[in-house]
Inverse folding.
């Protein structure tokens, strides 16, 4: 059974940092594309970052380039999203996704506010 479990969200001040984690189970993690999405209140879900299978490409939304970093630890079956220089407009529920398996995590709330 494919399962994705996110953690690491919370409240942070503008300019601060957070690291989100998504632990995968039920599939061969290293072989699949992993993505992070976010959805702010009243807005559509937005693709934030994509990490292809091991050794593949990495892509970011223009809104987070230079501030966010996606990475994966195969030994831990975990994909991370390091978020630096956070802005209030980064406030959203963040979701981990394995798109080719049509699998989503439950989401973790990130709130950037002073």
């Amino acid at each position: 059974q494919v399962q994705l479990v996110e953690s690491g969200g919370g409240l942070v001040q503008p300019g601060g940092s957070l690291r989100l984690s998504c632990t995968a189970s039920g599939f061969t993690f290293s072989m699949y594309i992993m993505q992070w999405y976010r959805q702010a209140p009243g807005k559509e879900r937005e693709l934030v970052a994509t990490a292809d299978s091991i050794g593949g490409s990495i892509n970011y939304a223009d809104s987070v380039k230079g501030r966010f970093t996606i990475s994966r630890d195969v030994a831990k079956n975990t994909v991370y999203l390091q978020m630096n220089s956070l802005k209030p407009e980064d406030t959203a529920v963040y979701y981990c996704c394995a798109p080719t398996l049509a699998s989503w995590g439950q989401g973790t709330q990130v709130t950037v506010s002073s």
